[in-house]
Sequence to fold (364 residues):
Amino acid sequence: MKRRQFVGGLAAAATLSACAQDAADCGGDGAISRQTFEWSCVTSWPPKFPGLGMAPENLAARVEAASAGRLKIKIYGGGELVPPFEVFDAVSRGTVEMGHGASYYHKGKVDAAQFFTAIPFGMTNLELNAWLYYGGGMALWHELYAPFNLVPFPTGNTGVQMGGWFNKEINSVNDLKGLKMRIPGLGGEVLRRAGGTPVTLPGSEIFTALQTGAIDATEWVGPYNDASFGLHKAARYYYYPGWQEPGPGLETIINRDAWNSLPADLQEIVSTTCQAITTDMAAEYTNGNAVSLQQLKKDPNIELRRFPPEVLGLLRTIAQDVVDELMASDPAAAKIGEAYFEYLDIVSENSRIAERAYLNTRES
Ligand code: CA
Fold:
């Protein structure tokens, strides 16, 4: 081994530029590099928020342990270093090396990215990850982010969300008219066309907006996360299912220069750990939602309700128009959208005779 590599192991931290100057230190010769890295990761979540905010914390802890401390990642909650919705720009510019959030927050900058989080009435968690890892989705995602000097990795998925908390009953499509609701992305546009007023707020501002009546309703995630915000103390009706986000995937984004500076084994540790977090979060949310739902059902002030079929039918029709227009507005969205729906056709057929048929049988 080169002397430089021993020195690197003793140093508290070497800089990215030192690594870039010496390819051998980056593992190019097959030896394990002693180069150490200290990264910052900004997020769109309240600091250490259950599930969403803990996912990057868990990622950082696992990467540090798996790399024997060679890659340390410090996590910043939304607003601690940059605002929650400016993660994309901060990582793209190289202000920080890494970010964690959801790709649909980049609506307006890179509209096609919404396909990698959630499409109303689109893919579930299992289906989305099947597309990303085995159906060609990841290559499209990498291509989409390349001009922004970003490398994306799927990192977590909340599973099917809830429709949200409402202070007004939704008995018919007329009840959507004038409804002021926190609902981001494509789901928000669907609500707008159904006569409502969509609002985008970061998670940290939702409870107060709902409690003060600034909004009539909000979607957030599901029982596990919604209970953490105390949303059940600010609204009476809890509607399902979460048509707007049937299995939203979360993302880690890494500045390409920072990514390229990592030796191959650290790159493998990062990408594998991101995948592990996705699996872990599915288990965490299934458990967290189940336990929280039982607690919420004991509260006499809460009514759990399913959206009327008429309402879901209208929202579904509008959602198809909204997604068609998104695809017509942008060549990248057209290309990714066509691949998405082609895959959805294939994968939903299997879901119908597997998950859905089984669950229907078990419940009957
Ligand atoms: Ca949501």
Confidence is low (pLDDT under 50) at residues 1-27.
